[in-house]
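Title: Comparing notes on inverse folding

I've been comparing how different people in this forum approach sequence design from structure. To keep things fair, I'm posting one structure and asking everyone to reply with a full sequence. Here's the target:
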């Protein structure tokens, strides 16, 4: 919908059809009314000038009735929504669409061609969602009307350049969420910007709804990396309102409807996690059903014998599992398997979405839970008290920025530089015990450990003289002592 221009006394007169003598006598009242409407924020449309002018004339004598004004505005907006949008959609040359092969993105392909007169290049990112999700995509895309499908393997980039920095920063959103989807969106959007440049596209598009966080994450990345790209978000424009509407549209345009069985849950999977939303989970009082989980076994069904795993860490980033050095993606994949069979990493939470509403989600993050525990425990050896406190406070803001889609914000990048600098000495090994859904630390070691047994021992030592504590306590407690003296009149 176009922006209305503010009504002035002149524009309201110009919008009127050729006036009769009776109409002319009401011009002054109309002008006065338009001024009043300006104060209320009422705006006009070139396509509906006659309608708005007529409303102005009718409301001149009842301008105190605000509910009447609101009703007219709502009516005009409805009319413009249904008629004006198609007229105002600009002609695009080529659009890169974030494509999954599901019903929604399959329908978006012909919708873009129909409404923007453009070629559509489908783009799929492999971020570890599983090989089955990638099968037959090219045939589906072309059958839907796409001119090309581009697939990029982003698993190593995703883990090494997005997940590991969040891990090093200790970024957790609202005490629980390990940011699985939040980290995946910017790496996908960045690749879309790259593909748009490679194929000469002038626009990008996504299938995110207008209620979720992902629309923000995609579009902020587009803005940051190429502000000249047009962005098309069909769910905020089209008349399709649900699955049945989408199926009907697909049939009308000869688009093959995916025959996969529709899940009762809305899921998002990548190498870091698997999220579940919808169905019975929409009521926070309902316990998740066991058959919903896909990455982890039930803790009660996990092995009765614990398993020990040793994580090697260099400068705050994991590099090995049980002495075996692995690439970032391979390391995470292995820990997902290990943690999954012990029921590690199940989280059930109600979170505050960026768009304002609360939502309930259940997450499976087996490997990520193990890694977060390992890095945090090693920091207990290598970071001092003040540094840990500052790092923890910044981690909260870091997580908020990532959750809100501000990955390429200079603030997050600056905070990341701090995290990298402060964890240079966070190097060593952490041994963890995995048992029926729990992760327990059993050992930590580092060549940069600030822990000194000769100081911490209860035995007397030369570095720490226990007699020195008396003076420290007197000075440290002086403010409390002075306050007590004042209250007692001493």
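Reply #1:
Here's my take.
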């Amino acid at each position: 919908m176009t922006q209305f221009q503010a009504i002035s006394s002149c524009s309201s007169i110009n919008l009127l059809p050729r006036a009769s003598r009776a109409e002319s006598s009401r011009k002054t009242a109309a002008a006065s009314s338009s001024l009043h409407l300006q104060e209320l924020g009422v705006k006009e449309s070139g396509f509906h000038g006659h309608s708005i002018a007529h409303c102005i004339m009718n409301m001149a004598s009842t301008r105190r009735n605000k509910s009447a004004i609101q009703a007219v505005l709502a009516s005009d907006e409805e009319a413009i929504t249904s008629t004006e949008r198609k007229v105002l959609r600009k002609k695009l040359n080529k659009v890169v669409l974030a494509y999954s092969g599901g019903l929604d993105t399959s329908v978006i392909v012909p919708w873009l061609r129909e409404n923007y007169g453009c070629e559509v290049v489908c783009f799929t990112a492999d971020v570890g969602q599983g090989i089955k999700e990638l099968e037959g995509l090219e045939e589906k895309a072309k059958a839907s009307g796409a001119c090309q499908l581009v697939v990029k393997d982003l698993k190593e980039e995703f883990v090494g350049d997005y997940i590991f920095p969040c891990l090093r920063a200790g970024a957790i959103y609202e005490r629980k969420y390990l940011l699985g989807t939040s980290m995946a969106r910017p790496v996908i959007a960045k690749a879309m910007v790259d593909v748009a440049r490679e194929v000469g596209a002038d626009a990008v598009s996504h299938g995110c709804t207008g209620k979720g966080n992902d629309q923000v994450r995609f579009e902020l990345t587009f803005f940051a990396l190429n502000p000249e790209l047009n962005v098309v978000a069909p769910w905020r424009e089209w008349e399709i309102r649900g699955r049945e509407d989408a199926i009907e549209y697909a049939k009308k345009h000869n688009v093959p409807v995916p025959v996969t069985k529709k899940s009762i849950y809305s899921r998002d999977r990548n190498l870091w996690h698997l999220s579940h939303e919808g169905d019975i989970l929409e009521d926070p009082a309902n316990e998740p059903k066991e058959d919903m989980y896909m990455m982890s076994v039930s803790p009660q069904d996990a092995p009765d014998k614990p398993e020990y795993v040793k994580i090697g860490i260099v400068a705050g980033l994991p590099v090995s599992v049980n002495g075996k050095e692995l690439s970032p993606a391979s390391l995470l994949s292995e820990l997902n398997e290990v943690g999954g069979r012990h029921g590690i990493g199940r989280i059930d939470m109600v979170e505050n979405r960026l768009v304002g509403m609360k939502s309930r989600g259940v997450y499976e993050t087996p490997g990520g839970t193990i890694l977060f525990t390992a890095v945090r425990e090693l920091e207990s050896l290598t970071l001092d008290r003040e540094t840990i406190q500052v790092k923890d406070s910044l981690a909260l803001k870091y997580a908020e920025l990532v959750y809100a889609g501000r990955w390429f914000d200079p603030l997050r990048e600056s905070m990341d530089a701090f995290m990298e600098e402060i964890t240079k000495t966070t190097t060593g090994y952490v041994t963890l015990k995995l048992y029926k859904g729990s992760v327990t630390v059993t050992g930590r070691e580092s060549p940069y450990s600030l822990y000194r047994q000769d100081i911490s021992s209860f035995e007397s030592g030369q570095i720490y003289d226990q007699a020195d504590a008396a003076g420290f306590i007197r000075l440290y407690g002086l403010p409390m002592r002075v306050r007590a003296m004042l209250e007692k009149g001493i």
